[in-house]
Amino acid sequence: MGSFLQQSRSSRGGSQWRWVALVASIWIQCASGSSYAFGIYSPALKWSQGYDQSTLDTISFFKDVGANVGVLSGLLYSASAPGRPWVVLLAGALQSFLGYFMMWAAVAGLVARPPVPLMCSYMFLAAHAQTFFNTANVVAAVENFPNSRGTVVGLMK
Fold it and tell me: Which residues are in the Nodulin-like domain (predicted)?
């Protein structure tokens, strides 16, 4: 840990901003794990939509696929200029909002009950946002602390 602290003082300029970015990334990581809370809100989803357990398992499958397929987030990070993780974070935030908002609207009765494939798409989209948060935060931390890659990845995950 000593070399981690020493590196932040001796690396290229703006070390205080690297620390701010690291702390912000940790907070984003803490708040972006909503797909892990599926067991908390799935009873409301099951009850309000009239799903059986098999249908709920199908929706949960799309949650797992969305949360683990991060190719698009990596491509977006590579395509955006270096030092711009906010582009990837914004894309993730939009996906998360759209997916969870549409699920909430269906549960709350604000929209007509969507067909199961559409609900699976909402869940996939919401969970897929997590890969964008992970990519932006982990890659930015590794770029900001190149000599402490293992430590910052450990902090992020």
Answer: 18-157
Q: 């009850």: which residue's tokens?
A: 47
3-class secondary-structure state, position 11: coil
Q: Which of 42, 1, 25, 4 is nearest to 137 (CA)?
A: 25
Pick from 141, 120, 109: nearest CA to 44: 109
Single-letter code of the amino acid located at 85: P
DSSP 8-state symbol, 50: T
CB 108 within 8 A of CB 46: no
CA atoms within 13 A on the CB side of 125: 18
Query: Cα separation of 4 and 127, whole Å?
Result: 32
pTM of the model: 0.82
- Report which residue type is found at 116: V
Q: Give yes or no for residue 9 having a pLDDT over 50.
A: no
Tens-place pLDDT, residues 139-155: 988 988 989 889 988 88
DSSP 113: P
